[in-house]
Amino acid sequence: MPSPGSKSAGPGRESSSAKLFCGVDLGASAAKLVLLDEEHTVRATVVKPSGVDYAATARACLAEALESLGADDLRPARTVSTGYGRRNVEYADASATEIHCHGIGCYHHLGHAMTIVDIGGQDNKIIRLGADGKRVGFRMNRKCAAGTGAFIEEIALRLGLPLDQMEGLAREAPTAVKLSSFCTVFAKTEILSHLRDGVPVSAIVRGAFRSVVVRVMEMDPLDGNVVLSGGVVAHNPTIADILEAELGRPVEIAPDPQLTGALGAALVAAGNQATTHLPSDRVTR
Amino acid sequence: MSRNESPIKKLRSTAALRDLMADYYHELDEAAGSGPAKVAWCNSVGPAELLRALGFKVYFPENHGAMLGATRMATDLIPAANALGYSPEICSYLTSDIGSYVSRTTPLTRAYGLASVPTPDVLVYNTNQCRDVQDWFAFYKRELGIPMIGIETPRSLSRITPDIVEDLAAQHRALVPELERIAGASLDPDRLRAVTASSFRCTELWREVLRTACCRPAPLTYFDATIQMGPAVVLRGDERAERYYEALLEELRERMQEGVGAVDDERHRFYWEGMPVWGKLREHAEQFASLNACVVASTYCNSWIFEALADYDPFTGMARAYSELFIVRSEAYKQHYLETMARDYAIDGFIFHNAKTCPNNSNCNYGMHVRLSKKLDIPHIVIDGDLNDLRLYSEEQTRTQIEALVEQLEGIM
After folding, report:
1. Cα A265 to Cα A18, A80, A280, B137, B299, distances in angstroms
2. DSSP E strand stretches across chain A
3. Does residue A52 sit within a domain?
4. What's the distance, CA B256 to chain centroid?
5. Is A278 within 8 Å of B290 when comparing Cβ atoms?
6. How many domains does chain A have?
């Protein structure tokens, strides 16, 4: 669930000698790009729908970021790509998994041991980091879109609601229906019966959010400091409230959660973490 | 290495393997046609020695199932079996094989020039792996009017007790009269002992082949082994299988002496628990190799090691051999086995394949993967997929998990 547009964290035109490091998170739903300078300050960010031509989207993200800095002729010193479309970023020097990059991005912000819950457009990850930031384990969701952003998109479609109204409805709802099906299609059938029974739409939307939380909690025990990242939480922070209620303890949302993966990739590009230089993943240049 | 160059190192023995498998299928084809020998269909860990000793040419539908998977024909053929009432959630060897039959198509045509699978004279099963083999063969019993006989093995065994062995040996013996009638020959005890002894020697050689991967770097990957296991499955009890493994072993020992690994610059060693994803075998082999990671061992390839065939009494040997298998055993036994394998092969991580249509070969549904990781301090990933039905497999999730596991082992976070 992308929010279009770009922003520059730094004022004015970049000098031609400025060294920029680029992270591109080309996800199933949204493409995110972060440009860092040598001090690891965010200079520009871009979020766009991934669209159907991933390579073109990646090019457009970079062009837009550089333009926002008034530095159209500048090229990043190094680019690392991540996300499902990481192999489609033609200008990337290396790539890393989104599991790797979300870990680095979250640790950069928070600097402590944590259990990251990354709810993405099409898959979820649970990433465990030790106190030193090293990954100690991870889980991905099964081959099923239940519990991901795609689930919320499907429910919005069924309810005839624009995606950006889902958060408001869920936040206001005093109750939530229970959607018990594992399957998105069957959940939509459940929704039909709730509608027939006159259940308020807001309770159904909150129920859909709760369903996402329950699916995530089924993946792995969420112990320690729980940190949420990813685009779904960025646009639907009520998910964090529901998760807190289910866990019975506070959870954090990573700053700019939709950009965490791209930030992690940019940090890798800047060299504060080594990349794997995975040969299977090298981009044809 | 350029992007288009495969990192897979071919074994030169594979040329002889192709010839051997071609001979095997041509002999079956001849027997099913005008040849004097009868054809028995047998499940892969069924009483092949008994059948071979009676002169049957033995055909293994599971091998055909694997070919349907590897050629990616399976996913297109499974719906034809689904339409006959065979659920998409049961064994996809079964559904793809029945789909192949009703669609009148087989990968044996392209691979070996056979017009169709060899028609059986008898169907012989052992339920040691699952009930599906029985249901699978029952389809052909009804369809072709062919006799079906078999052995019913208890499952989830902690210990193979004498009463279990006695019962299973008796069940094996009870097959003999019907098999003699169909074969038109009497069972020669010396011939049975000779076949069983050959099968045991094949086992010993196959085990030696697999154990070469204890070496670092491993001269053989799991992906190689899934191909190389062909003779151990379909030709055990035939001395040609022994000859083949002797040659293969020599080649692997050469690699060991020269320090040549199956994967260049082997940095990580993995264990594959569960069935292969046949239609993605090459992609998986290439991905691991490109990450300098070697899948050195697996439960699957080790499942055709039958030490008990050394028993002087072939019936007792078969009874014990075909009930000692990993798949027949209790959860506690399986976990102990995997712990031992992890240590023997010095593995750095487990790959658990959760094959949707093969729960009996998927050992990550009762928490074993989590327990093993905790106990051995070795990470694991679970790949959701299937042996044959690629509709149940997610390519990108699998690739990402494998990469992320290697990243974690590289300690880059």
Report:
1. 19, 5, 18, 54, 37
2. 5-8, 21-26, 30-36, 42-49, 78-82, 94-95, 114-119, 124-129, 135-140, 226-229, 252-253
3. yes
4. 25
5. yes
6. 1
Residue among B373, B392, B412 minimizing CB distance to A273: B412
Query: E strand or H helix at B24, and its extent?
Result: helix B14-32
| Residues of chain B that touch chain A, judged by Cβ-Cβ distance less than 8 Å | 1, 3, 286-287, 290-291, 373, 379, 384-385, 392-394, 396-397, 399-401, 403-404, 406-408, 410-413
Contact B394 A143 (CB under 8 A): yes
Mean pLDDT, chain A, integer: 88
Is the pLDDT score of A9 beyond 50? no
- Does A38 map to a domain? yes
User: A276–B410: do the CB atoms touch at under 8 Å?
Assistant: yes
Residue A90 lies in a domain: yes
| Domain range enclosing A47 | 5-100+259-281
Under an 8 Å CB criterion, which residues of A touch B? Answer: 84, 96-100, 103-104, 107, 123, 129, 133-138, 140, 142-143, 273-276, 278-282, 284
Residues B175-192 pLDDT 10s: 999 999 999 999 999 999
Closest chain A CA to residue B373: A137
**Residue carrying structure tokens 């065939």:** B309
The interface predicted TM-score of the complex, written ipTM, equals 0.85
Mutate to test the interface with B, among A126, A143, A148, A278 (most CBs of B within 10 A): A143
Q: Which of A84, A96, A273 sits opposite B396 (nearest CB)?
A: A84
Cβ proximity of A83 and A258 under 8 Å:
no
Given B291, B373, B400, which is nearest A140 (Cβ)?
A: B400
| A77 domain-assigned | yes
pLDDT of B376 reads 97
Q: Measure B78 CA to nearest chain A CA, in Å.
A: 20
Q: For the segment A218-268, what is each residue's pLDDT rounded down to a tens digit?
A: 999 999 999 999 999 999 999 999 999 999 999 999 999 999 999 999 999
The full set of domain ranges for chain B reads 14-410
Residue in chain B nearest A279 by alpha carbon: B290
The C-alpha angle with vertex B374 and arms to B372 and B379, in degrees rounded to 5, equals: 75
B264 pLDDT tier (thresholds 50, 70, 90): very high
Q: Residues with Cβ < 8 Å from B268, sequence gap 6 or more? A: B291, B292, B293, B294, B348, B349, B406, B409
Q: Return the percentage of chain B with pLDDT > 90, whole number.
A: 95
pLDDT score of B70 = 97
A235-271 burial code (b ≥16 CB/10 A, e <16): bbebbbebbbeeeeeebbbbebbbbbbbbbbbbbbbe
The first and second tokens of residue B200, run together, are: 């045991």
Contact (CB<8Å) B404/A138: yes
- Domain of A75, CATH number, reads 3.30.420.40
